[in-house]
Amino acid sequence: MMNGDLICVDWGTSSFRAHALSGGRIVARTSAPRGILTVAPGEHAAVLANLLADMPSQVRALPIVMSGMIGSRQGWVEARYVPAPASLGNLAAWLVTWQEPGLGPISLVPGVMQDPQGGIPDVMRGEETQVFGALALMGLQEGIFIMPGTHSKCIVVEAARIVRFASFMTGEVFAALKGHTILGRLMTDDAGGVAAVPGEGFARGVLAARGLTGAGALLNAVFGARTLGLFERLPGGELADYLSGVLIGAELCAALPERGGGIVVGNGDLVRRYTEAARLLGRTLTPAPEDSVVAGQAAILSAAGMS
Question: Taking the domains of the chain in order of start, what are their residue ranges?
Fold first, then answer.
């Protein structure tokens, strides 16, 4: 659970979020579209101080814990990847800490990697913190965690350890196919990409993914976003939803056991889309509590004896 007085920072590629804790309660929040790609080398401390200026003056000097892409090679300070299986204690032992003038002491959470012999390596950075926060808030020791996003994750936890995981380029592939291939030519974009409430096109795409028998079959099903429009089987406003359904459905078929379930971490329309796709596939997804990342950061500092 969340204890102590500190500032928890989730600093990713495209966004910045910070929460101030006092006595284990969130007392202030701030966010901005200032992901790491918007910050020039050497300017992280100044940007962080400016972003925290919205916080009450009494909390600005508190210890700071950060997770996410801020610890990547493209971030502020690179934090090594902890090899899986990885426990809360492993993450705590690999914290990167330093003192920054004008700010409270900073702790940076490492990522997690897996590198199977003869296989393809995989990495995560930020999701591990959300997983351990969800475990703490839900009182769990195991589960399958689905983390939707640009590079979605399926993370398997056993005995309170991340034992294995897989990354899926679902979000990025959707954006690339829609914006930079012929598939997007017949799509109308009245809803800014896909409908807020998934409709017929999304369901059709998910169910098409259910019958796939291999990666080649996925490529064929994706082309349906072209032909269903050409033959007027789906209106232009449903074609992006169809493409989204195929990609999300294929991801969930690979990530979740048949008739099985998991925990989905996140919020907003994307989580609702994943939850609906799981239902259509005969699987279940339970939303994780809000502020899982904050609970995870606090738990890691506690395991390190720092809060």
Answer: 6-141+291-303, 168-287
Q: How far apart are CA 108 and CA 33, in angstroms?
A: 20
CATH topology of domain 6-141+291-303: Nucleotidyltransferase; domain 5 (3.30.420)
The answer to pTM > 0.85 is yes
Measured N-to-C along each axis, helices 269-280 and 236-255 cross at an angle, to the nearest 10 degrees, of 70
Question: Which tokens hold the place of 31?
Answer: 């966010």
Tell me what pLDDT residue 1 has.
46
Q: Of 166, 6, 159, 3, whose CA–CA distance to 88 is shortest?
A: 159
Tell whether the model's pLDDT for residue 148 goes beyond 70: yes
**Which contacts qualify for 58-62: CB closer than 8 Å, 24 or more apart?**
59/5, 59/7, 59/20, 59/22, 59/27, 59/28, 60/7, 60/103, 60/104, 61/103, 61/104, 62/5, 62/6, 62/7, 62/20, 62/104
Closest by CA position to 17, among listed 48, 63, 57, 60: 48
